[in-house]
Amino acid sequence: MTKLKWGMIGGGEGSQIGPAHRLGAQADGQFEFAAGALDHRPDVGRDYAQRLGIAADRAYGSWQDMLEGERGREDRVDLVTVATPNATHFEITKAFLEAGFNVLCEKPMTMSVEEGEEIVRVAEASGKVCAVNYCYSAYPMIRQARAMVRAGEIGKVRLVVTSFSHGHHGDATDADNPRVRWRYDPQMAGVSGQFADCGIHALHMASFICDDEVARLSADFASTIPSRVLEDDAMVNFRMTGGTVGRLWTSSVAIGRQHGFDIQVFGETGGLKWFSEHPNQLEYTPVGGRKQIIEKGEGGLHEDAMRLSRVSIAHPEGFPLAVANIYCDLADAIRGEARDSLPNAADGVRSMAAVHGAVSSAQQDGAWVDARPPMFR
Amino acid sequence: MTKLKWGMIGGGEGSQIGPAHRLGAQADGQFEFAAGALDHRPDVGRDYAQRLGIAADRAYGSWQDMLEGERGREDRVDLVTVATPNATHFEITKAFLEAGFNVLCEKPMTMSVEEGEEIVRVAEASGKVCAVNYCYSAYPMIRQARAMVRAGEIGKVRLVVTSFSHGHHGDATDADNPRVRWRYDPQMAGVSGQFADCGIHALHMASFICDDEVARLSADFASTIPSRVLEDDAMVNFRMTGGTVGRLWTSSVAIGRQHGFDIQVFGETGGLKWFSEHPNQLEYTPVGGRKQIIEKGEGGLHEDAMRLSRVSIAHPEGFPLAVANIYCDLADAIRGEARDSLPNAADGVRSMAAVHGAVSSAQQDGAWVDARPPMFR
Amino acid sequence: MTKLKWGMIGGGEGSQIGPAHRLGAQADGQFEFAAGALDHRPDVGRDYAQRLGIAADRAYGSWQDMLEGERGREDRVDLVTVATPNATHFEITKAFLEAGFNVLCEKPMTMSVEEGEEIVRVAEASGKVCAVNYCYSAYPMIRQARAMVRAGEIGKVRLVVTSFSHGHHGDATDADNPRVRWRYDPQMAGVSGQFADCGIHALHMASFICDDEVARLSADFASTIPSRVLEDDAMVNFRMTGGTVGRLWTSSVAIGRQHGFDIQVFGETGGLKWFSEHPNQLEYTPVGGRKQIIEKGEGGLHEDAMRLSRVSIAHPEGFPLAVANIYCDLADAIRGEARDSLPNAADGVRSMAAVHGAVSSAQQDGAWVDARPPMFR
Amino acid sequence: MTKLKWGMIGGGEGSQIGPAHRLGAQADGQFEFAAGALDHRPDVGRDYAQRLGIAADRAYGSWQDMLEGERGREDRVDLVTVATPNATHFEITKAFLEAGFNVLCEKPMTMSVEEGEEIVRVAEASGKVCAVNYCYSAYPMIRQARAMVRAGEIGKVRLVVTSFSHGHHGDATDADNPRVRWRYDPQMAGVSGQFADCGIHALHMASFICDDEVARLSADFASTIPSRVLEDDAMVNFRMTGGTVGRLWTSSVAIGRQHGFDIQVFGETGGLKWFSEHPNQLEYTPVGGRKQIIEKGEGGLHEDAMRLSRVSIAHPEGFPLAVANIYCDLADAIRGEARDSLPNAADGVRSMAAVHGAVSSAQQDGAWVDARPPMFR
User: Fold this and answer.
1) Are B350 and C312 in contact (CB under 8 A)?
2) Residues D362 and D234 sit within 8 Å (Cβ to Cβ)
3) Given pLDDT bands bounded at 50, 70 and 90, which one contains residue A114?
4) What is the mean pLDDT of residues B229-236?
5) Is residue B312's pLDDT more than 90?
6) Which of C124, C43, C92, C85 shows the shortest CA–CA distance to C344?
7) Which of B158, B228, B285 to probe the A interface (max A CBs under 10 A)?
8) In the prediction, which pLDDT does B243 show?
9) How far is D237 from chain C (nearest CA, A)?
10) Res C120: pLDDT
11) Is B316's CB within 8 Å of C276's CB?
């Protein structure tokens, strides 16, 4: 099987996201890193791309150059990853989709709901793959959880409870550190801080596992460090279309929590629990029965969990390979095997609608608001 | 040291609460079980009391008989425990306080806020000890957590997050079981189901550790099993007087959770975490530092934790001895050594105000309401 | 049901073992603390006993006085607990058995195998209960494990692996502390240090759960703190009569381990795991299946686990109530309901034979030796 | 930086080890997969190599062809990975070293001690890198543990206790499955079963972290499934050159354990604990202090741990990236930056000497034997 050709925009030297995507794309040998516009400083980006092994003529100085350069090639890249600052995702993703490229966009896909709806329309018109990097959903045990829910193994889902709460922004003496401060500054981060950063991963996860969509929500935001304009702690209650009750807590001041992403799903006949720091186990309790530990790689898992397990049971796989799983699905999708587990533009705009809805609710003392983008109402 | 004399109302044969109190009162040899009105059926109660070793003349057929019998004795009981059905707590507690007895009342102390305020007044006028059995607060590591907060070891508390969520009422096919059903029936349980049952333990714990009071709250209630009138799942956001943000989730349909009571406290310079199923460990993380495991019985604990540890480090102590710790504090208080950690009537009425506030908020789609009893506004 | 009368020898003021036994005996209201010789200093012991509520005429100055005083009484104590220094257990236990008392002896029951065999013979001749306080075996989940093995739920046991390793004697700068030093001094501790102190609990547990006896063993002892004559770390491999392979590690220099007692049992069709610091859970994995968490108090446990659970599922019970469980079984046994789970004199002498066998093996570079007392060969 | 060229021998289609190495070599973009002899069936291997993207002229039918083909090229591979059946490791590794290639050999490096010593000599004479794939030692937290020991942070190491015990060969009804059976058949597996398969990983780890070598040992082997000739359970006690006491348990019938590899290291001033199923945490307890959780990626780790962490704190990394870390070190070493953490031929022969020593000891009822290869005595 010939390798697919892959290009990246953003993710320059010193970024954390760049190596994560390069590892994800290349780990399973399905993509060849063929083109890149890795830095907003043209020379820096071209130089770094070449040091990473990209040919000089495909080491671009800007995403516009890359768009021009690649669209005319016979051997154009099969997939473009957009890993630039958040505010630029919309413009770049749109341009590449319109030019007929498959795109993987980092989250958040856009800054506004309107932009998000535009991406959905453009993606649909293009006929291309437009994925959003909700990579946690690609952990094998999350795929297992979703498959169990779909198969009715825990009955109708009554309740989903999730949190994505860490403590890495909990030091007030470090709050002016630019690496931290921007996140709580509306000029740079948009309408929401912690909820837009981490909360939407949890919200997507709830929808993903429950196989349902968030319909309405009520939010309580707090800036526990007073100098912050945007929230560093948020609680969002929600209801899904099918009636499932949801509870989502996200915080960046929860000192002692490290990654802090977990999810619990409670149905009529069973419950599930997963924790991102030990992602290879899934707890399952049938109603009236004992808690069981489901292990990545064990016999009898659902297909979508099984195929994403690279090494045998109890050999842990971690976050970078969850990203790699997104690329596995992308490779399949590009080659024509649809992967309905792949987070897509609709997921992207739903997140944005939830962010704006939560902000609006919080401003109205927790009034319940519609959480759906207009196009999906 | 002469043993104190102890009497019990309710807690008859086959109840779970009776043995818990008898073990708690007698474990450390400070109380002698001297009198009882253990059952609403006079003969049954008298017989059972005598089988438990109580003298015939102090084995009463009703709490009224016990009140009459004991008030006239030279060797009257030093402490009366009220462990009758919830709706009777107010009347009995009030009567015994007015007659000059020290009382330990099971939670909830009353059904209404007005009754709760009445108990506060009566208790104050009596000069007697009136305690409420929020026994989780008597675990040594909870006392340690409170002492750490008081000593400023985690700085000003920004955020407290607690849950008391189990799955033992999650089986819809068992929902008509009378042992379960009454809890969700307003005729029997009052205005609230799960929040009044378990949530108020968590709410008290938040106040207890943070050494602060809940000022206002917003609630989202759900009856995830449709036949239930009262909620089986609730989320309550709150603010404390000092500004601390609070998040409390309580559920009885969280299948796979057993006891399911935990609390996390996040301050300016550190975080704490405790889990009731492994109550002998307390996690502590200083800001910027590593998580540490504090063990019951280790050297250097705060006094209020140290004195309640009976066996050496890492020999676990469990729930019945947390109840016993309440009795230790009661013995001290009765003998004149004030124990400000002992949950009291003010705690009892605050819980009731929070229950009624949460019900009111939930009925108004989560509107923020005052959570304080009028007497403390 | 009339309370049984209970007396104690040793366990004076300031000891840890005294309160543990008093709580254990009194927690469930089956025993009344009626007599005691609590200290080797007659006046001190008599005074302390009276402060604990014992009548003056039964507050004895020595065990000999107590033997004389009690044997002539109509209302003599039903049970004597021997909690004196190790070297005196034999003499006292023997004397009270011969006088027709039921005895609970602290471990080790004796210092030599010969003494142990003597106790077995005396106990048998007396017709009285002679129990040894291997109290860990009385945790409900250990009773469950034993019952599962007996019921064939994990098939024939192939392998048992246990450790009782803590780090509380790991500080060389504290090694001369008398509270620590005596344990490694043959003049005071006998032939073995850590193995005789903690290892025999683990060895008893292996026999108890597997329902089999240790037949032969090979030991490797080390004094990792060089000033110690006796071992502070030991590994013992063994074989049971039925062929089960055993591995036992015990250490007092394992810094970071607190209580550190765990056991794993592997049979033909399943495996079990238990950890003393979280004693209310038992892990069970059927061959080819998933790990399950068995909880104290859950429905469907074996009878011997069920009856020793005082509070409902997931309310933890700890070490002091494991001791109390020994007293529950003693009360039953004294009243005529045989409890074959109660550790007895045969267990006591088997432990002593294992200690002497291990010492002998370690001195011979790990040569395999017979671990059985001569009387059971 | 130009990518290094990498070739592989063995690891054909359907093997588990092949993908693990390909991911490991390519994850960080340092190696280009340039050549391979992937199967003992020439056509199958050539075909598979080309499907994996290798040029036709470097898709070899045998390792001998690859040796001939590559040695004459200007652009010969910089590294050859040997992942063939165990019995062939010696011959292939030796041939490639003699031809001037750098080699990564799967464990066990050889079947005999003599062969192992030969590889050490050949590797030294060649001046090339000869590494052995003890990949667990490349987990960041293991590197941290070793660095802490080297820096004296736990003082002189007194004791190391490790186990690598799983239950995946515990089903007697599956024992004749060829995939399982060969491991216990001396015709195919050599002198040892489980100890040679998993035990030597644990033994290497002990040496690696303690920065010391195993000097002598005593072994107890058991075949708990009677049809097995070789051991499926083993306990090995050992002493290191510096006096450290060692305890190693390995089993394949420990039903309920999944991966089951852990290690505990106890020094004069602290203890460490690590568990392969949650490899991103390292427990550290200073003597007299509290247990601390060290997290992969936290600030202030030792350099050798820091540089092998790809994603930020609490984003888990797993087994495949531990293999990738070996390749990171190999890339550095090939480029001239010596990596003394890289397991090498001396480690390979030491393992083999320990295997043969343990077999000999077990045959002599646990007699202590020299565990060192003659060349290192």
Assistant:
1) no
2) yes
3) very high
4) 98
5) no
6) C124
7) B158
8) 97
9) 8
10) 98
11) yes
Cα gap A249→A198, rounded to integer Å: 10
Q: What count of other Cβ atoms lies within 10 Å of the Cβ of residue B269?
A: 18
Question: Does residue A1 register a pLDDT over 80?
Answer: no
Structure tokens at C224: 């990792």
Question: Are residues D251 and D233 in contact, defined by beta-carbon separation less than 8 angstroms?
Answer: yes
Chain A residue numbers touching C298 (CB-CB < 8 A)? 290
Q: Which residues 6+ apart lie within 8 Å of D171 measured at CB?
A: C287, C288
Indicate the residue of C171, C257, C271 with minimum beta-carbon distance to D167: C271
How far does A282 lie from chain C, in Å, by closest CA? 11
Q: B229: helix, coil or strand?
A: coil
Residues of chain A contacting C294 with CB distance shorter than 8 Å:
290
Q: Which of B311, B317, B327, B328 is the best mutation test for C, with the most CBs of C within 10 A?
A: B311
Contact assessment for residue B281 and residue B296, using Cβ atoms and an 8 Å cutoff: yes
Return the minimum-mean-pLDDT range out of B367-376, C309-318, D227-236, D300-309. C309-318
Q: Kindly state the tokens that stand for A191.
A: 């309408």
Q: Look at phi and psi of residue C324 and say left if phi exceeds 0, alpha if psi is from -120 to 50, else beta.
A: alpha
Is the pLDDT at C1 greater than 80? The verdict is no
DSSP sequence for D145-208: HHHHHHTTTT-SEEEEEEEEE--TT--GGGTTSHHHHGGG-HHHH-S-SHIIIIIHHHHHHHHH
Structure tokens at A94: 């749109």
Percentage above 90 pLDDT, chain B: 94
With CB atoms and an 8 Å threshold, state whether C271 touches D366. Answer: no
Whether residue A279 is predicted with pLDDT greater than 90 in this model: the reply is yes
Neighboring chain A residues of D29 at a CB cutoff of 8 Å: 22-23, 26, 33, 52-53
In chain A, what residues touch B169 (CB-CB under 8 Å)?
Answer: none
Q: How far apart are CA A235 and CA B55, in angstroms?
A: 56
Note the pLDDT of residue D2.
Answer: 81
| Option in B288, B291, B295 nearest D292 (CB) | B291
CB B257, CB B165: distance < 8 Å: yes
Determine phi and psi for A279, rounding to 5 degrees: -75, -5
- Buried/exposed code over B160-180 (b: 16+ C-beta within 10 A; e: otherwise): bbbbbbbbbbbbbeebeeeeb
Region A277-302: mean pLDDT is: 97
Whether the CB-CB separation of A101 and A343 falls below 8 Å is answered with: no
Rounded CA separation C48/C12 (Å): 7
Question: Looking at residues B311-318, what average pLDDT do you find?
Answer: 88
Q: Quick: pLDDT tens for C350-369.
A: 999 999 999 999 999 999 99
CA dist., res. D339 & res. D341, Å (int): 5
CB D221 within 8 A of CB D191: no
CA angle A183-A184-A190, nearest 5°? 75
Lookup: tokens for C337: 């309901």
What domains can be seen in chain B, in order of their start residue?
4-135 (3.40.50.720), 136-312+344-363 (3.30.360.10)
Å between B186 CA and nearest CA of chain A: 22
Summarize the confidence of residues C1-8 as an average pLDDT. 90
pTM above 0.95, yes or no: yes
Query: So what's the ipTM on this one?
Result: 0.96
Q: How far is C283 from chain A (nearest CA, A)?
A: 10
- Contact between B361 and B195 (Cβ < 8 Å): no
Give the length of chain B.
377
In a mutational test of the B interface, the residue from A255, A364, A368 whose CB has the highest number of chain B CBs within 10 Å is A255
For chain C, the chains sharing at least 3 beta-carbon pairs closer than 8 angstroms are: A, B, D
Chains in contact with B via at least 3 Cβ–Cβ pairs below 8 Å: A, C, D
